Amino acid sequence: MGLLDWLRRRPQPIPEALWQQTMDSLPFFRHLDEDERQALKSLSEAFLAEKEFSTAGGLELTDEICVAIAAQGCLPILKLGLAAYREWVGIIVYPDEFVVRREVADDDGVVHEYDDVLSGEAWEGGPLLVSWRDVQMAGGDYNVVIHEFAHKLDMLNGDVDGMPALHSGITASEWEGIFHPAYDDFCRRVDDGEETIIDPYASEAPAEFFAVLSECFFGIPEVVDAEYPAVYDLLRRYFRQDPLARLSA
């Protein structure tokens, strides 16, 4: 029985060879200690049993695809638990970038349609969509899985506004007092034409700033800490993880 037969069933063990291959695929997995790897494995197994994977564009769904997405997606909630991803089930995987048809009304009420080319998207109350090619491109400051899963964390408490559902120890006023000045500063830097290590797309909206900074928090924590140390500390407390300490170790 393969992983694809396990979906929506009781958690079953991920084969050790496949798990080791997944752990070897990205630096931030290699920096986990053995206890963290085992906890991530158990969490990924529970995730695979709870979520429903499907594909589009002719892509064949494989164990490798499911485990790669599960492991990357579960890393941010390693200390938060699977309940942080409640209220949604579906994950749709495309072979490459995909097109979503958009409609927008202008000030005169005229509706305009256009095609939006995406590598990932999280729908409120619905599935999460990712490009398998982009999942495989993960590394450093780019991780489409963590980005879209961060949006799901943001959606958990309602508005997609860059502030996820907070747990004890972090207040909304504290989050806003640290997060929004950093976002405003980053927008200023981008508007001034500065070439930033952090993806300029983070300046699009507070929600994108949170998603992109979440990618960077796990992928290039030293950059987040150097440029926005207060944000790094905020994310460290929110995710209850310290990637920078893992690098030092």
Question: How are the elements arranged and paired?
Answer:
Layout lengths: L15 H8 L3 H4 L3 H17 L1 E4 L7 H12 L15 E5 L3 E8 L5 E8 L1 E3 L5 E4 H5 L7 H12 L16 H20 L14 H14 L1 H7 L1 H11 L3 H6 L1
Parallel strand pairs: 1-2, 2-6
Antiparallel strand pairs: 3-4, 5-6
Helix pairs in contact: 1-4, 3-4, 6-8, 8-9, 9-10
- End-to-end Cα distance, whole Å, is 38 Å
H/E element sequence: HHHEHEEEEEHHHHHHH
Main beta sheet strand tally, sense and closure? 4 strands, mixed
Structure summary, number of beta strands: 6
CATH architecture identity: 3-Layer(aba) Sandwich
CATH level 1 class label: Alpha Beta
**CATH superfamily caption:** Collagenase (Catalytic Domain)
Helix content: 40-55%
Question: What would your notes on this structure say?
Answer:
With 249 residues, this protein is α/β, with parallel strands linked by helices. It has helices at residues 16-23, 27-30, 34-50, 63-74, 132-136, 144-155, 172-191, 206-219, 221-227, 229-239, 243-248; strands spanning 52-55, 90-94, 98-105, 111-118, 120-122, 128-131. The protein has one domain: Collagenase (Catalytic Domain) (3-Layer(aba) Sandwich). 47% of the residues lie in helices and 13% in strands. A four-stranded mixed β-sheet has the order 1-2-6-5. Strands 3-4 form a two-stranded antiparallel sheet. Helix 6 crosses helix 8 and helix 9 (221-227) crosses helix 10 (229-239). It is globular and about 55 Å long. 36% of the residues are buried. This is M90 family metallopeptidase. Pfam families: Peptidase_M90. It comes from Azonexus hydrophilus.
